[in-house]
Specification:
Length: 178
């Protein structure tokens, strides 16, 4: 009796579970400076404006802002369809003295609040699993936008496919014995 098939299934399951690719939110299907209303659903996230609306591709191919009568000074949320890790986003358009807040939410609620005071990449990877960001740029007189939002979907735990393949292998093994 050979255990080659169960071992092969366990190996394939382990590699499949560990394969993770970085995703960047893609706004390329929209026109430059297109106002998309108060809600925008993308394959991996939903963006919701709390006041005003959402404008995409205003400054960059992969950007959005919460636009009000005063410019990109609104507030809103970025909720992911699945929990994510290794999240980064580039905030730009921040003038000296302006601040914005980003509330970082996970499955257990509020993880932390980050204050943004200058242009640059905000690296949220140290917060682990994130489900949503709540962004408030009300203190921005000139407005700000958010671009190149990159993250990884939380993979299925490696143990789950491994356990399933072991169960299948055991079933196959015992079926062959009969």
């Amino acid at each position: 009796m050979s255990l080659r098939v169960p071992a092969f299934l366990a190996t394939v399951s382990l590699f499949a579970a560990s394969a993770v690719n970085a995703i960047t939110l893609d706004f390329s299907e929209f026109d430059i400076s297109e106002d998309v209303g108060t809600g925008l659903t993308l394959p991996d996230a939903t963006i919701t404006a709390f006041d005003g609306s959402i404008q995409v591709r205003q400054f960059n191919q992969q950007s959005f802002c919460f636009i009000t009568m005063d410019g990109c000074t609104g507030a809103g949320s970025l909720a992911f369809t699945q929990p994510v890790v290794n999240l980064t986003l580039d905030v730009f358009g921040v003038a000296p003295g302006e601040t914005a807040t980003i509330e970082i939410l996970g499955s257990v609620g509020l993880l932390d609040t980050v204050t943004v005071t200058e242009d640059g990449v905000v690296d949220l990877s140290s917060y682990g699993v994130i489900t949503e960001l709540v962004i408030d740029a009300a203190d921005f007189a000139s407005g700000s936008a958010y671009r190149d939002i990159t993250f990884e979907i939380v993979p299925i735990p490696a143990a789950l496919p491994l356990m399933l393949s072991a169960l299948l292998g055991s079933g196959w093994f015992f079926a062959r014995r009969r």
